[in-house]
Amino acid sequence: MDRYVVFGNPVEHSLSPRIHAQFARQTGQTMDYQRALLPIDGFANGADAFFSDGGKGANVTVPFKADAYGWVSQRSALAAAAGAVNTIVWDGRLSVGHNTDGLGLIRDLSVNMGINLTAARVLLIGAGGAARGVLRPLLDSGIASLCIANRTAARAEELCTEVGPDDLQRVKAVSMASPGEGFDVVINATSAGLAGQGALVPPACVGGSVCYDMFYGGQTPFCRWAVEAQAARVVDGLGMLVEQAAEAFHLWRGVRPDTLAVLGDLRK
Ligand code: ATR
Questions:
Q1: 3-state secondary structure of 180
Q2: Nearest in space to 17 (alpha carbons), one of 35, 31, 40
Q3: Does the pLDDT value for residue 7 go beyond 90?
Q4: What is the DSSP letter of 67?
């Protein structure tokens, strides 16, 4: 049977095996998908062992996305833009690294939530790996402007310089204290919620906006804060998780699963 894994540390919390098992059932694919816990300094050894033993593909989660980027023999354009790999496809000879996180975010926003991103004004909070991973697909979705706010301002400024000359006009670094107002979409790409912190920017920034937390878990600290700040709609990143998995499944198996059925099941 074709074998797939998700590499991570920790990884026991990962919903990916459950998601891919449902995708496989839906589409009639015969495949096995397991969690693989690797030591923090053991990505290369773990990946070498899995693929030399006949593994067909892998997802990569925290903290190995940059290690995976260095390990693969080829990278897709989105992986190169993100500097990170979350999906590896083994073609029998070569490993190709992809990054499906940003496509997952765009699909959840535009298809599942029905938000018209064309000409949208977007505020992205955070400038770490999660923010970098979604930058290119966000710009490619046709948004009008992207403001990036980060606790460490220099990281936001640096991220803005990475977009390339064609997009420089649409992107700017803004301060967390006063990032502006009237955003159509506000996205949390920080890990502040892991420490229970939801309030990152003044509430006036999100009044009337769609607020999206790239983390999931129902009422995350950011989601709770956004509801209080009177955002028009508030959602966590569970849909992004399912959609990035569907992009990976499509790369591996060549078929598109029904993500809404899986998302509905997980939300229960
Ligand atoms: P990731 O790969 O998850 O993006 P990262 O590169 O460590 O991880 O980045 C974490 C992001 O969360 C950064 O934008 C970080 O801000 P700094 O660049 O200033 O460190 C942000 N972050 C983490 N904890 C935060 C907090 N308590 N308040 C605000 N931002 C926070």
A1: coil
A2: 35
A3: yes
A4: H
pLDDT at residue 192, as a whole number: 96
- What number does the ligand 1 atom closest to the CA of 126 have? 14
pLDDT of residue 218 exceeding 90, the answer is no
Distances from the Cα of 47 to the Cα of 37, 99, 164, angstroms: 11, 17, 32
The crossing angle, in degrees rounded to 10, of helices 16-27 and 259-267 is 140
Chain-centre distance for alpha carbon 222:
16
What's phi and psi for 114, nearest 5 deg?
Answer: 70, 30
Whether the CB-CB separation of 257 and 26 falls below 8 Å is answered with: yes
Beta-sheet strand order (sheet of 121-125):
171-174, 145-149, 121-125, 185-188, 210-213, 233-235
Residue in 56, 65, 172, 268 annotated catalytic? 65
Nearest atom within ligand 1 for CA of residue 194: 24
Distance CA 153, CA 51 (A): 40
- C-beta neighbour count of 215 within 10 angstroms: 21
Q: What number is the average pLDDT over the span 235-262?
A: 98
Q: What is the mean pLDDT of the chain?
A: 97
Report pLDDT digits (tens) over 26-44: 999 999 999 999 999 999 9
Q: For residue 108, what are its two tokens?
A: 């959840």
